Amino acid sequence: MNKLSQWIFGLNILCVLWFSLLIHQYDNEYFFIIQFIPIILLIVFGVVSLGIILYRVSAFNDCKSAALELQMEIKEAKIALTEKGFKFD
Amino acid sequence: MTLKYSILLPTYNEKDNLPVIVYLIHKYLEISEIKYEIIIIDDGSPDGTLEVAKQLETIYGKDKILLRPRGKKLGLGTAYIHGIKHATGDFIVIMDADLSHHPKSIPEFIKKQTEQDYDVITGSRYIGNGGVSGWDFKRKLVSCGANFISQLLLRPKVSDLTGSFRLYKKPVLEKLIETCVSKGYVFQMEMMVRARQLNYTIGEVPITFVDRVYGESKLGGSEIVQFVKALLYLFATT
Ligand SMILES: Nc1nc2c(ncn2[C@@H]2O[C@H](COP(=O)(O)OP(=O)(O)OP(=O)(O)O)[C@@H](O)[C@H]2O)c(=O)[nH]1
Ligand SMILES: [Mg+2]
């Protein structure tokens, strides 16, 4: 089963659960909320996703030392290669 | 018997970067006593990359530097296929020649590979002390966002799907290339998805990605369109 089918399968199950809630709980005092479950879930999902992404952006290492080290090594390479007879233009 | 590693360097207008990367590969692999060859696949760069490569061949020797140029720019994907055909190593290392990928990681890849006899080792900017350098907030956001969505949709069990600094067992890479359908740079992502599908074992090593110092960035806006297309295709088919 490919990923698309897995998603459709999962969403279907959620839909069925929600419908059965809608049908059986119409006299429930929380019926108003039950009606909006899909939208609530969608919003929660969006907010959580955004949170995860922003967290990862902030945790993304900025490797300044790697860039500096590379600059040094570029100089080193040029000197060593020139000694070996390499001609930079 | 010592194992041999073939490093593929596709180049297009990398005359400033190529000597440095070759020097660094030599520096880090020689001290680790790793047997290697560097295969340079230049696609007729107008800036004279091939002349630079020839000089390097003279300095380091024909057994270390193999020049396998092509007449014109035929793209990165076919450059790898072309390079593999000439590779004599047991393992293939794929990396960019623009110094974004640092050769010091190669011995770490090799060490990781031997730990559990992994089929594939992939460098990751997102784990441990890996990371990027010179990226602004927007670029990080796009990268993390794209990564999050692809993780969600494809669940590849690999933290860095679009990175292209990797080590493969040669037969594994040949098999993967045969299986992959996408062209262009998105095929890096497909390779990981297919590797999972074919039950290959994948190990990850943190890498630092430093933006290119010399030369122009060759990828434009069509990159995003390509990425989305590939993502949806893999989502619906794998
Ligand atoms: N042989 C060959 N090499 C290529 C071609 N296009 C790109 N390359 C090389 O492939 C590597 C990766 O390409 P880059 O242009 O660095 O792509 P990128 O890293 O996604 O983008 P920037 O670093 O921002 O430019 C570099 O070593 C390039 O020189 C091609 O058509 N043929
Ligand atoms: Mg690059």
From TrEMBL, chain A:
Main location: endoplasmic reticulum
Localisation per UniProt entry: Endoplasmic reticulum membrane
Pathway(s) where this gene product acts: Protein modification; protein glycosylation
Sequence similarity: Belongs to the DPM3 family.
PANTHER family: DOLICHOL-PHOSPHATE MANNOSYLTRANSFERASE SUBUNIT 3
Any one GO CC term of the record: endoplasmic reticulum membrane
One Gene Ontology biological process: GPI anchor biosynthetic process
Spans traversing the lipid bilayer: 7-26, 32-55
Role summary: Stabilizer subunit of the dolichol-phosphate mannose (DPM) synthase complex; tethers catalytic subunit to the ER.
Organism: Sipha flava (yellow sugarcane aphid)
Taxonomic lineage of the native organism: Eukaryota, Metazoa, Ecdysozoa, Arthropoda, Hexapoda
Domain of life: Eukaryota
Keyword check for DNA-binding: no
InterPro entries xref list: DPM3 (IPR013174)
Pfam families: DPM3 (PF08285)
Assembly and oligomerization: Component of the dolichol-phosphate mannose (DPM) synthase complex.
Entry membrane topology: Multi-pass membrane protein
Alphabetical keyword list: Endoplasmic reticulum, Glycosyltransferase, Membrane, Transferase, Transmembrane, Transmembrane helix
Protein name: Dolichol-phosphate mannosyltransferase subunit 3
GO function terms (MF aspect): glycosyltransferase activity
Automatic annotation (TrEMBL), chain B:
Organism: Sipha flava (yellow sugarcane aphid)
Pfam families: Glycos_transf_2 (PF00535)
GO cellular component: endoplasmic reticulum membrane
Enzyme Commission number: 2.4.1.83
Identification of the protein by name: Dolichol-phosphate mannosyltransferase subunit 1
GO biological process: dolichol-linked oligosaccharide biosynthetic process; GPI anchor biosynthetic process; protein O-linked glycosylation via mannose
Cofactor: Ca(2+); Mg(2+); Mn(2+)
Enzyme class: transferase
Keyword Cell membrane part of the UniProt annotation: no
Subcellular localization(s) per the UniProt record: Endoplasmic reticulum
Gene transcribed to yield this protein: LOC112685340
